[in-house]
């Protein structure tokens, strides 16, 4: 019952955030551009409520002015590619960052720990579009200059057409998009693990004869991972922004493909819909992070259950 209430609160918060962000964006633009409401003499809040009802109750965001297509249909077509790209990048970034941070904390000042720390710093500082373009120019199929290694696909393959082709087409975008998250996760995990390793209960576990790797995997990592997931929630807006760039670099037909054209042509209905999708990505990722915390951290799990 407690878990159900926790999930219900999380879902309600996601809905409130998405609708709230979309409403604020719509209201700001329409207050600055009253000509967008030309021919509609109703009070602006009445128009806003009508828009939100159509958008979130009937999934009708209007028609794209540039492409003359239903925006809801554009979202349906691009959402699978974006969810695949975002999900794979989060898994890679978090898994590699947590593992790397745990290694650096368990074996400080070793050669491999130093290399991981340098890689994390570079991943945090280098823009993803620079890394993405560099990888394509070096290893992209038909573009690469590294000979037999130039095998990275440069065209997206839907999962329904070829599962292996889908993985091959998204493998490098997953890594490139997940690199900044890998960097921040590694640094946070390193700092958190360094504190946890000094706790008395870990010394007790070691004194009972458990191997150091077992102590770290079963006790230290679950206790130290909470700040990493909290940081992931804060970093999600940056990840979604990078997602838009990776779509352009690797020609992935996601939801945000038409954003640049929408900005150039003033296609506000499309931009409002993309704002709602981006807010949904951030809010849902936050909910997933809280669920992961409840699963990994016994203290968080106890609060959820009780």
Could you walk me through the main structural features you see in this protein, from its secondary elements to its overall organization?
Helix 5 packs across helix 6 and helix 5 crosses helix 9. The model has no long low-confidence stretch (mean pLDDT 86). The protein has a single domain, classed as Orthogonal Bundle (MetI-like fold). The chain is mainly α and 306 residues long. 76% of the residues lie in helices and 0% in strands.
Give a short synopsis of this structure.
By secondary structure, the chain is mostly helical. The protein is 76% helix and 0% strand.
Beta fraction = under 5%
* Element pattern in H and E: HHHHHHHHHHHH
State the oligomer: single chain
Shape: globular
Rg, alpha carbons: 23 Å
CATH architecture: Orthogonal Bundle
Note poorly predicted spans: none
DSSP strand count: 0
- Report the biggest beta sheet as strand number plus sense, adding barrel if it closes: none
**Remind me, CATH topology?**
MetI-like fold
Can you give keywords for this protein?
single chain, 306 residues, mainly alpha, MetI-like fold
SSE order and pairing:
Blueprint: H1 2-32, H2 44-57, H3 71-106, H4 111-125, H5 128-139, H6 163-196, H7 200-207, H8 212-224, H9 226-250, H10 259-265, H11 268-296, H12 298-305
Helix pairs in contact: 1-2, 1-11, 3-4, 3-6, 3-9, 4-6, 5-6, 5-9, 6-8, 6-9, 9-11, 11-12
């Amino acid at each position: 019952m407690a878990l159900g209430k926790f999930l219900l609160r999380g879902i309600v918060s996601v809905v409130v955030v998405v609708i709230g962000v979309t409403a604020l964006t719509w209201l700001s633009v329409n207050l600055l551009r009253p000509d967008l409401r030309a021919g509609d003499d109703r009070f602006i809040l009445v128009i806003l409520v009508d828009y939100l009802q159509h958008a979130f109750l009937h999934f009708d965001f209007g028609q794209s002015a540039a492409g003359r297509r239903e925006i809801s249909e554009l979202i349906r077509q691009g959402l699978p590619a974006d969810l695949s790209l975002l999900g794979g990048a989060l898994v890679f970034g978090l898994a590699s960052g947590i593992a790397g941070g745990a290694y650096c904390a368990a074996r400080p000042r070793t050669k491999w720990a130093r290399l991981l720390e340098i890689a994390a710093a570079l991943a945090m500082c280098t823009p993803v579009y620079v890394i993405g373009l560099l990888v394509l120019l070096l290893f992209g199929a038909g573009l690469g200059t590294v000979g037999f290694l130039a095998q990275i696909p440069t065209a997206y393959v839907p999962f329904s057409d070829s599962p292996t082709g889908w993985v091959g087409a998204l493998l490098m975008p997953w890594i490139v998009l997940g690199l900044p998250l890998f960097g921040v996760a590694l640094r946070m995990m390193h700092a958190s693990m360094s504190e946890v390793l000094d706790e008395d209960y870990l010394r007790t576990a070691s004194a009972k004869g458990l191997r150091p790797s077992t102590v770290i995997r079963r006790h230290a990592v679950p206790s130290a991972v909470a700040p990493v997931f909290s940081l992931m929630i804060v970093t999600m807006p940056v990840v979604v922004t990078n997602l838009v760039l990776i779509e352009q670099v690797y020609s992935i037909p996601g939801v945000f493909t038409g954003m640049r054209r929408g900005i150039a042509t003033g296609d506000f209905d499309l931009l409002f819909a993309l704002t709602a999708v981006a807010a949904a990505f951030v809010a849902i990722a936050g909910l997933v992070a809280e669920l992961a915390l409840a699963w990994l951290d016994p203290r968080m799990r106890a609060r959820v259950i009780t």
